[in-house]
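Render this sequence as a predicted structure.
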Amino acid sequence: MKKILVIDDDGLVLKSVVKLLNSRGYEAVGFKNGSEGIKAFTAGQFDLVVSDIRMPEQSGLSVMKEIRDIEKRTNRPQTPFIVITGYASQDAPLGAMELGAVGYILKPFDYDHFFETIQKALNPTPCSPAKDDSSDRYKVIKKLISDYYGKNAKEVSSSPNLREFFDNLEDAINSLEKQAIERK
């Protein structure tokens, strides 16, 4: 049974995600803040971490950095990490992917898409992008954007703010990808 650590400051979301994951045969445990989640990660062995990005005491990206530091200090392999958020931001997906996140999900999320992302994170295919190849990470981000946009086209097209967010995010990713290619 795969063990999943869930960190989210919203009690209702935390309880719902843990319950959903447990109902699908995973062993999910949840914590309402980053410090509790990091303590649990340090003390246990998890196959996946799912964390909210925006939390009052410590951001999900900060949690991810600390977990990556723990893994380095203890010679543990990188644990797949999925970030979730209710706030669209250009920096969050890029920062998460730079730290090696394997998924980024905007709330409210489609449950099928959520479980598909969980499944892919726990069972990566041999052709999954290497964690140290930034150009492949940008392709993953572009795919996530495309998938989200495709599944939520009506909502995105009716919201000028969301359209602008996706346009700006795609421009930022293209610029970063170009810079990465030029550095090689």
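Summary. The CA atoms of residues 30 and 48 lie 12 Å apart. The domain at 3-183 is CATH 3.40.50.2300 (Rossmann fold).
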